[in-house]
Structure formats: C-alpha cells, structure tokens
Amino acid sequence: MNFEVLTPAEIAPEEALHSLQKMRERAKQKWMIIFLTIGLLVLGSSVVYALEIKWLLIAYAASCIASVFIVGAWVFLKLPVLTEVEHKYAQVVLPGLFTKTGATEVRVGKHHDLSMKTFLEAGLYHDKYSSISREDYIQGKFNERPFGMYEIAIQTVATYGGGGAQNTVGTNRFYGWFIIVPADRISGFHFITMRYRNNNGESDDWHTLTLQHWEEDVHLQKFVPGESKFDDAFLLNTNQPEALHEILTPSLQEFLLYAAATAKNSFAISIQRSRIYVMIGHERANFRQCPEKKFTEEFHPDLLEDVKWYADLLKGIHKVGSR
C-alpha cells in the first residue's frame, strides 16, 4: 500500500474528521483564554498598584482570585484538551490505516484490561514495578490470526518527606507497546533482545536492564545462529537451541535485522509455547500524531511511518506463529 497518496477521506468519515478539527481549535482556544486572562490581570494589577488606593487594591485582589477560579473552571470543564483530541483522532483513523496494510477486524480504544501477570509472564521486563497504567489498545487480525497491541506504563511509586508532609510520586519505568500474538505451539522458551538501544524520546532504561539480565543469565543458553550480522544485532537466549534454530529461518533473520534497523526504539521478543510477546518502548506521540493543517486533507508523515512499521512487524511475527 502506497501511503504517500492516501487521503484521510479514504479511510475515515469526513464528518468525524471535521468534528475533530473543530475540537482541536477549541482546545487551542483554552490556552489563548488562559494567557489572555493572565495578561489582563497583570495589566490591571499594575494600574491599580499605581493608583495607591488601599481599598481598591483589596477589592481588585479579591476579584482576581474569583476570576481565576471562574475562568479556570469554565476552561477546564467546557473546553477539550489536546491529548483528548489526539486519542480520539487515533480511534478514528487507525482502523482504516491498519486495514489498508492488510489487517482485518481492527478495533482501537482506550483502557484495555491487560494484567500485570500477563505482562510479567513474557519475561521481557527486569526492573522494579509497583503498578501498571493502561492506555490505548489496537486489536485485529492478519491472515485470520489475531494480534493485540496494548499501550502501558509500568510505574514505581516513591514516597518523599517525613511526618505529616509526605508526597507520593509515580515514575515510569517502561512506557510503550506490549504486543501479544497467539501462535502454533512452539517448544521451549526463547528470548530475542536487540543488543543496542534505539532511543527516540524514550527516557526509561528498561532495555538496558533487560539486555543486562540476559547477558548475565546462567539458566538459559546463549544461542549463536551462525550469521555474524544477526549475532551482532541480537542477543539470543533459549532453553532449547534446536527449536530456536528451526524458528530462526534466514528470512526471519533478515526481517528482524530490517525491523531493528528501522525501529525508532528498541524492542525485545519472547517466544513461549503458544504465544509470542513483543515489548517496545516509544515516545508519547506514537500513533497520535495529528496533521499540522486540516484533518481532512493530510496525515502526519510520522503517523503513516509508524503504522507501516508496526504492520510489517506484526506480519513478520505472524509468520513465526504459523510456521
């Protein structure tokens, strides 16, 4: 599919796109109102202070406080925020975009139910954790085989201060996509981890810690496929080398090298029994890049690039699952 000539009208209802355009304009008005209100209050303060009338200063201060509460409440209750626009935009355009790559029955939404237990079972995360925050999800099928992409933030919670003035702060240890693809039953446990880190907006160090874990692991065997280019790019750990050798066909190695070379962020793969897991971090704009101009006329080029890359990744993984 040539995404370069694809127009939004081909994959999404024009009415929905127009509605999102208006929604973004209202979201931008929020900040204009806030800055204008602050500017007027500062200007008024200067004038009242120059008059040096005490009772007027007190009255003006009281009116300023009231104005801040009234304007603030109206702005935040009545006007949308840009992140809300981005999430709704993704829900409108992603089903059509993924369908154009060959996917079927695509569903996009918020607040999935991926459990921490399922996430940890993949064996790809080796850092501290306290909780899981669930965001968007994308589900569908390629060649009648389902896939699930779940956007998550794995967080730790730290408490600062003492006595009665303690503050609790959450910190992301991983933020990105966790992918699950059902597979024909595969013998053994196999882990494929990029040896180097791609970092495009990612601030956490999950990949470094995962790579370090598998470098030091003594329970699973290190596997060298015999292709020096692939061995330079990936660290392989397995409890059944013969099974992994069968999985890593020359075409799969070539595909994974391409995926690693074109990925914006690092990824790791776990192949276990009847499931394949992929963990890949991302910057916060992933899949939510709105066009700079009109929603009905163009796509953001980064959005099209991301959709194509993830679709290619899913197709490649499905080949492993249906061998």
Structural account:
The chain is of the alpha+beta class. It folds into 2 domains: 14-78; 84-321, no CATH class. Helix content is 45%, strand content 26%. It has 9 helices and 7 strands, in the order αααβαβββαβαβααβα.
Topology of helices and strands:
Elements: H1 14-51, H2 54-78, H3 82-100, E1 104-110, H4 116-121, E2 131-142, E3 145-160, E4 167-194, H5 206-216, E5 221-222, H6 228-233, E6 234-238, H7 241-247, H8 250-262, E7 267-281, H9 301-321
Antiparallel strand pairs: 1-2, 2-3, 3-4, 4-6, 4-7, 5-6
Helix pairs in contact: 1-2, 1-3, 8-9
Feature tags:
single chain; 323 residues; alpha+beta; seven-stranded antiparallel β-sheet
Can I get a quick summary?
This protein is α+β, with helices and mostly antiparallel strands and 323 residues long. The protein has 9 helices and 7 strands. The longest helix is centred in the first third of the chain and has 38 residues.
